[in-house]
């Protein structure tokens, strides 16, 4: 986990690491905002234009990431390389999937990310559509709290130790079978100590943030994002090991793909997958680089879970 404040947080913003409930507000207005938009959906484009109109009225420059089908429809400059340069905050406009794509745009630039929720589930996004008008002045004023969300680093190698893929995830790294009719046979190691052998449809290695995503649908627990942990969750296992293993971020999780079977399919946060051949290895560890999540509202995690799943 990172132990320093990133360079791009507005002066006075409070960075809150996992495990802390402290809150604070930034001082001074922002001058430049980046947008990541689900440009294949008309409601997202309409909301993005609405945001642009409000931001421009406050003399804020706006750019949109070269992301999706038609980012130029938003009506502001489209930026690919250097998207986060000189940006005070990035707004994702869509659902949690758009937020994840935005996270992969902003993490390494150290720019806070705030989600405008147009989807159904909103564990990652912050501001619902009906809250935008009230929230925009606070966004312009920089009145947010910055939370650090842990991420995972992943390296995959073939049977000869040759690297075949790398990546990082905010939610999860998934190792899945490529043959529909067969299960995937894997060995699971923790810090090079063999934990178990398992045959399953997939294995998920998730952050606490990702506990409410793919891992939850596979039967994993709901974990507060304030807890620094890594979850190892089998999907449809054909074995007595059908529980989630919880480890610390500094521990290394290794998934060894057994020989004499089809390739495994590996992806990070559902992004572009790649193949790991039989005998290959997928190693996952906690990253030192978090995603910075901007929060305008004090939404306790239990209340968010209750509202999202309509538990009342």
Layout of strands and helices, then pairs:
Elements: E1 15-16, E2 32-37, H1 42-57, E3 61-65, E4 78-79, E5 89-94, H2 96-106, E6 113-117, E7 127-128, H3 132-140, E8 145-149, E9 152-157, E10 163-169, E11 172-177, E12 184-190, E13 193-200, E14 202-207, H4 214-217, E15 230-235, E16 245-247, E17 253-257, E18 264-268, E19 274-276, E20 281-286, E21 291-295, H5 301-308
Parallel strand pairs: 1-8, 2-3, 2-5, 3-4, 5-6, 6-7
Antiparallel strand pairs: 8-21, 9-10, 9-20, 11-14, 11-18, 12-13, 12-17, 14-15, 15-16, 17-20, 18-19
Terminal Cα span: 35 Å
Q: Would you identify the CATH architecture of the largest domain?
A: 3-Layer(aba) Sandwich
CATH superfamily caption of the largest domain: Probable inorganic polyphosphate/atp-NAD kinase, domain 1
Number of strands: 21
Count structural domains: 2
Q: Which residues form runs of ≥5 with pLDDT under 50?
A: 1-27
Helix content: 10-25%
> Can you identify the CATH class of the largest domain?
Alpha Beta
Mean pLDDT: 89
Q: Compute the gyration radius: what is it? A: 20 Å
- Tell me the strand percentage band: 25-35%
- Enter the CATH topology name of the largest domain: Rossmann fold
Largest sheet, order of strands side by side?
Answer: 4-3-2-5-6-7
Instruction: Tell me, briefly, the overall form.
Output: elongated
